[in-house]
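[audit] Reproducing an earlier prediction to check determinism. Same input, same settings, fresh worker. If the tokens differ from the archived copy the diff job will pick it up downstream; this log only records the rerun itself.
[audit] input (254 residues):
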Amino acid sequence: MAPPSRVPSRPSAHPDGRAEVRRLAQARIPTAHGELRCVAYAAADGVEHLAFVAGEVSGAAGALVRLHSECATGDLMGSLRCDCGAQLDEALRRVAAEGTGAVVYLRGHEGRGIGIAAKLRAYQLQDTGLDTVDANVALGLPVDGRDYGAGAAILHDLGITGVRLLTNNPDKVAALARHGVRVAGRVPLLAPAHGESLRYLRTKRSRMGHLLDGLDSPAGTAGAADTAGPDHPHPPRTTTTAPAPAAPPAEESP
């Protein structure tokens, strides 16, 4: 049986220009990983986004940056169907430890842009055996409807001229480049896989081009991934957690 074909994400909606954002407010936010500055922005479509900033980033040509897609189930509730919450926490930890960088939290990206209710409908289909790609298609929804124009505009407003991007998704690197952000390197963002997330992560690797290693071990519990998403059909219900890597993977040049 032929392997499933890769499904590319939707191209950015602003390939020839920059999206616009407006800075609304900012405040000091003490976190478990250290003190960060939170800056709120409004995009032209009215969606409000956040940037959690460490240190002085204006003029930074290689700031450590994560563009994180909103995921209420993973980020807020700790769902094991995806790796989003673990990735967000690790990104905040690494940016705070670096001392210079930002985690940009992009709202309106729930379920790779389909919204929370539609994501729950996709989960139902995944529990019948569809993967995260085919579930979206069955609902008549885009496989990946996210746009990173607002994220790029936020980086421009912060004065960041180049980034080392925390991601496993090459499409995100390309999207930022289309919006005029220079990506000096890609930094893998590893998170443990669970019994509930393993099939989802493998689908992102095989059908969406995410760069994920360690998903084919006999136990099937070592792995990594990127933003927003669903899936693992029942069974299993038990979960196991692989230990975190001893050291972060090497950075890659684009």
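[audit] rerun output stored. Observation attached for the diff report: Residues 81 and 230 are 5 Å apart (CA to CA).
[audit] end
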